[in-house]
Design brief:
about 200 residues; alpha/beta; Rossmann fold; seven-stranded parallel sheet; 9 strands; about 20% strand; globular
């Protein structure tokens, strides 16, 4: 499937990304090339130890030209911002496109859960959402990505051959097949094209 054609067919308003083992390095490689005028909001869940403070926002803020912060309860999603889910709470997107945090049971042993974020974002954004699943060692995110596809959104999986751990991308590919399976370079090119065509 041609990336340019996909970008033109999908006016996008937000991006959600999930990753686990190897995810910090993959996300840095993916997002470090974004320009300062990148406008789409990006919301990311990386599996974290539950009882430690997350340094993700601090790490990425020094490497990206857009705003980076940990998502806060009731905060409205703003453009040109990368949000990270904090440790110990599920992060959901509400219908008014604000965040909510919850302490419900872990999903696939994880809280925050990629599935929880992606399924709620699929309800809030419908066809104007892109979901991206990167390297990881469990099945979290496969159901969430399938929900995005079901709602008409665009679904992208990192090429398992490139992923540090292929379990998570392979689990998503076994569900309703994602729209695209790409390397990190290919995903970055897609994001840049989607941003230029964004709503």
């Amino acid at each position: 499937m041609n990336i340019m054609h996909v970008a033109e067919e999908h006016p996008i308003e937000a991006v959600v990304i999930g990753a686990s083992t190897g995810g910090v390095a993959a996300l840095l490689a993916l997002l470090s090339g974004l320009p300062s005028n990148f406008r789409l909001p990006i919301v990311a869940v990386l599996h974290l130890p539950e009882h430690r403070d997350s340094l993700l926002a601090e790490i990425f803020q020094h490497r990206l030209p857009i705003a980076v912060r940990e998502a806060a309860d009731k905060e409205s999603i703003a453009p040109a911002t990368l949000y990270f889910a904090g440790p110990g709470y599920h992060l959901s997107v509400e219908m008014d496109r604000s965040f909510s945090l919850s302490c419900e049971a872990p999903v696939h042993y994880s809280r925050p859960s990629i599935d929880v974020l992606m399924e709620s974002a699929a309800d809030a954004y419908g066809a104007s959402l892109v979901g991206i699943l990167l390297t990881g060692a469990n099945f979290d995110g496969a159901a969430g990505l399938a929900k995005i596809r079901q709602q008409g959104g665009l679904t992208v999986v990192q090429d398992p051959a490139e992923a540090e751990v292929a379990t998570m991308p392979e689990a998503a590919i076994r569900k309703p097949r994602p729209n695209l399976i790409l390397t990190l370079d290919g995903i970055r090119s897609l994001l840049l094209k989607l941003d230029r065509n964004s709503c």
